[in-house]
Fold this protein.
Amino acid sequence: MSNNKFFFVLKDSLIGSGGSSLQIVALRNPATTKASKYLLHRGGPQGQSTLYEVNCFNEHHRSWFINQSVCSNGRIFLPTLIDPLFLVLPYLEQHCTKRAVPLEQALMDDEFPHLSLLADVLSPVGLGLISDEKRAGDIIAYRYSEAKALAWLVSKCQRLSGAVSKQDGSAARSKNFVKEEKENAADLDEKEALHTAYGIVSDYLSLDMCKKLSIALGFPEDENVSKKRKSIADLESAVLKKIKKEEQHDTTPIKLQAPERKVSAKSKALAKAASGSKSISSFFKK
């Protein structure tokens, strides 16, 4: 049995170029603030580095057969491109709101030491979409701009909605309408596609930024995201409580109920006869 192997579905461009390297790193998820796995690809065709989000597909009772051995780890990992600005955004908002800070100082997290590697996949042009650049000699510092960040997110939602509207599914309505209904249907399709795009983008944002983006897109205050995050948090809390409860049952001795004592017929008769009689001590009382 083998369990220390992992299966990735990768593009040829990730493994075919000479001199390139792949590294799995743990970084803070911008939406949940918890650890998530990412794939860092260095040394691409033009020397640039790219960041991929690692998605895992897992089902129970799945294994891999490798030659004459069985790998019990049947998970499949699929890396997909992700904009590194999503991961940098919370740090710029935290450290670079009041003053301009060099990038290497903004990308510091004691829990995630690999955060500094994001500097390899960021460009000044990209950082300029969410911050203002300040220069002093050779030092380049960045100050977070909420207005720029929201404009960047709105642009992403609009471009993504264009791609969503071309897909078949609930976000794209059938176009087999009568002539007078086509105009209203087109407007509804655009709104649904934009709302779908907002839902996709919001999976990479904090709850506070989701609300600001919803307002910037002209949507009413959307509570679906907060309810979704709350349900996930409640589910995780319930799982932890269940684990603790099971551990407590494993370590706490169980008190068994004392077995009932069998009373013979003779003892029952004596108890019934004595129920109406007085005790000896009562005769000596005044």
Observations:
- The beta strands are 7-8, 21-28, 35-42, 50-57, 64-66, 69-71, 76-81, 101-102, 131-136, 139-144.
- Confidence is low (pLDDT under 50) at residues 171-182, 246-256.
